[in-house]
Amino acid sequence: MYRINPEMDQQYVEEFRRQPVGRHSPGLMRVLNTLRYDPSGKQIVLFCRKPFAEWQIAEMPANRLDPLVFEDSPIFTNRDEAEWEIFRRRWFKATGQHLNQPFRSADEV
Amino acid sequence: MLKILGYPDRYSVAPGEAISFQISLEEGDAFSAKIVRVLNGDCNPAGPGLDLPHHPSSVDGTYPGQPRRADAGSYLIAESVPPLDNVSFRALIWPTLLDRRGQVIASQWDAAAKTGFMLELDEGKLSLVTGGGMRQTLPHSLLERKWYAVSFSLTAATGAFRLSLSPLQKDFGVDDAGEIAGSLGPSIAAATPFILAGAPLADGTIGAHFNGKIEGPTLVAGAESHATLAVNPLPAAIAPKLIAAWDFSDGICSTTAIDKSAFRHHGRLVNLPARGMKGSGWTGVHHSWQAAPAEYGAVHFHEDDLYDAGWPADIIWQLPEDAKSGAYALHVTCGETEPEAMRECYIPFFIRPPRVKKPGVTRPKVAFLAPTCSYMAYANHGEHITVRGVERLMGRLLHFGHQDVYLYDHPELCHSLYDKHADGSGVCYSSRMRPNINCAPRYHSWLGGDGSSLYQYNADTHLFGWLAHNDIGYDIITDEDLHRDGYPLIEDYQVILTGSHPEYHSTAMWDAMKSWIDRGGRLMYMGGNGWYWRIAFHDELPGVIEVRRAEDGIRSWEAEPGEYYHSFTGEYGGLWRRCGRPPNMMAGIGFVAQGFDVSSPYRRAPDADNPRASFVFEGVEDEVIGDFGLIGGGAAGIELDCINRLLGSPPNILRLASSEDHSPLMLLVNEEFTATLPNLGGDQNEKVRADLSFYETPAGGAVFATGSIAWCGSLPWNNYENNVSRITLNALRRFMDPKPFV
C-alpha cells in the first residue's frame, strides 16, 4: 500500500484544491485512494441539509448499530469546500502536516 | 430528519382501480396529502427545476397519522403444533452471525406468561430456556458457517432436560461438541405457535431472530438421544414418534414449509428467508436444487429479511375510469421542511392504460416502460451505509440526504438487491411492499453522478419533463405489467421508450419485448446497462423479485457456489449474458463500463453520415454531442454500453457517435476481461465508451440506443434546447412515423 510522501505528493494538493471532483491525474488518484482508506472502519459522509445549498460533515461509526455523528459546524454552502476540508484533515492525519491554503478564493474560481 | 414516509400497495394502477398508501408519520398527529403529476423531480438550479403539478382528486385533504414500524426478520411459524410438554427437538444449523445475542433457533413461547421453551444461541453458545427464564447453556462455542446438529429433550412437568451439540465435521483442536442434562425446574408448555428462527416478544412482534441456515427441524414425542437425532436423514424407525418434520427441500418455490409427519403441521415462512439453499449434505455434483432437492434442504434465515411491512392503509384513491396514464405521486406533508427536518415525501406510482382495450379508444403510439423491477432491485440501496471504500468509487464524499439518514436509523426497512445482510450473505429478494426511500421525486442519490446526483426513478423524471416539454402523448406501462400481461400489453405500441437504467428483466419480460421488436416494434433505449440481470417473480406473493448474483458481472455480493438457481422459479440466475441472451441481442449494445463521478461527451462517428441515419442528425451539425448535462456534466456517464458483434449486435448496426475523454474512474466491467488489466480506467482503456447506435429490423422496425445512463440528464440542459435533445426528438419523431424502415 502506497504511503503518502508529503514532499513528492505536494503537487497533487494543489490539483485537488482547484478541482476536488473530476478527472484527476494518476498521481492524485493514488493519493486519494490512499487518503480515502480508514482502517478504523469509520466513514466520513457529507450530509446535505438543503439540496444544492447547505452541507455538513457527519461520521458513520464502524458499528452499523451506533448512531451517525454530525458536526454542527461548519455549515458549508459549497460542496467542494467540504471536500477540501476533509482532504486537509486526512492529509494531516497521513503526514502530520497542516495544509493552510484556503479553499479556492473567488478570483481563482 | 425525515418526518414522514410511506409506500403504495402497487406501483402500477389502472383506471377505475384503487390504490392505497400506507404512511408513517414520525412527528405530530396529522398530515396533508394530494396527488401530483411527476414531470421533473430534480430541483437542481442548473436545470429547469421541479415540476410536480397538483392533480386535483378525492385524495386532497388532511389525515390522522402515527409512526409505523416494520417487523423485520424471517421465521417459520407452525400454528397447529400443540403445546409441547414432553418433546425432543433437533435441527441442523449453520450459524452466520454468532456475535449477536439471543438468537432463537426454535421456540414455543408465551412472552406474557414467560412459559414454554426457547432454544437459542447467545454469544455463540447454545442455551435452552424454559419457564420464568430458567436457562442452561453449553460451554462450547460454535463456529460460524459450520454445520452442527443441535438437539434437546424436555419434560415440562419435571423440568428434566438434555441439551446437545455436535459438529457434522470435526476439526482438530476445536472443542465444539458437548451435552448437558439435568433439571430446569418444572414448567408448563405454552399454547402458542411453534416458531423457528425467532420468538414472540412482549410487544406482539416476532424477534430474537436466528441468522443462518436451518435444515431438517424435527419435533419428536418423548425423550430421544442426541445420537439418534443427529443423524440426517433421521432413521425410519423414528417415524411413529414424529410430531413434526419439516422438509425444506419440498416446495422451494413457495412460502410453505411442508411437514412430512403424519400430523401435517405445515408451517409458513414469513418475510422470505432464502430458499433453494444448499444443505449440510450438498455434494457439489449438482448445482440446481431441481436436480437434487435433497441436497437443498436448508433455509437461510436473516434478522433483516422483510417482505411486507404490513402497515394499514391511510389513504385509498379510487381512480376515475378516465384517469390518464402517466407518472404520479402522492405528496404528503406534515409541516415546513427545514435544514434540520424534511417534512414531506413523494410516493410515486404509475397509472397504466386500462386492462381491457376499449373499442373506439385510440391509445398513444408511444409507451414508456417504467423499469419498476430496477426500482425494486435498488429499493433502499444501502451500500453507502454498509460498505467501506465506496467513496473511492464515487470520487467524492458520500452524499447523505434526509432520506438516507432515516434509512440509517431504520435498518428494519431492510435492503436492496445490492446489499448484504447483517451476517454478510447477499440479499437475493427485494419487495416493494415497504417504503422505498430512494425511489422518489426529490431524492438525490449518493450514486447518481456529480451534479443533480439522480439515479433510477428520479433520473427518469428528466425524460418525463422532456416528453412534456415536447408535448409527446404517451402511455406508461411498468415492468410488472409486462411480466404479467406479456406481449399483448405492448403489441399496439409503435414506439417504446425505456428508462435510464432498465437493468432487471424476467424471462417473461425479455420474451415479450423481443417478440415486439421482432414484429416491427421500435425501441428507444434511453439509458445504459439494460437487460443485464435475470430476475424471477414469485408465483404467490405480489411485488417481490429475486436475483442470484451468479458467476460474473458487476456484483456487490456473490452467490454461493451451488446457489445460482432462482428459488422462485428454478431458473438459472445471473447475467442474461451468461444465459445466452446478451443485451446486445435486444438493444444492439451492451454494458461495458461503469463510473460515478463525471460524465463525458460523444463525438460523431463516420456512420453519422450514413443516409440511413440522416433523420437522427437533422439540424445537428455539431461534432461534439452532449458536452453538458445535469448528471456528471456530460451525456455519457454512470454506465455505458457499446456495440459488440460477438455478443449479438446486429451486422447492420450503425455507430452514430461514441463517447470519449472518460475519467479514470469510468472502469471496464469485469465480464469484459479475464486476466485483470492494469488499464481499466476510461482514460487508458480504448474499450471504455458509449456507442450511440441505430439499426433497422427485418420486420420494418428499428432500435435507437443511447448507451448511457446519463443521456437523459442532458435532455433538460438549456431548457431542453441542445443537441442531445434534438437528436432524441429527431429519432422519436421518425419512430412515430408509421413509414417502415425497411
TrEMBL record, chain A:
The protein's name in its UniProt record: N,N-dimethylformamidase alpha subunit domain-containing protein
Positions of the N,N-dimethylformamidase alpha subunit domain: 3-93
Taxonomy, superkingdom: Bacteria
UniProtKB/TrEMBL annotation, chain B:
InterPro entries: Class_I_gatase-like (IPR029062), ConA-like_dom_sf (IPR013320), DMFA2_C (IPR046540)
Source species, domain of life: Bacteria
Stretches assigned to the N,N-dimethylformamidase beta subunit-like C-terminal domain: 276-722
Name under which the protein is recorded: N,N-dimethylformamidase
Organism field: Acidisoma cellulosilyticum
Top-level taxonomy: Bacteria, Pseudomonadati, Pseudomonadota, Alphaproteobacteria, Acetobacterales
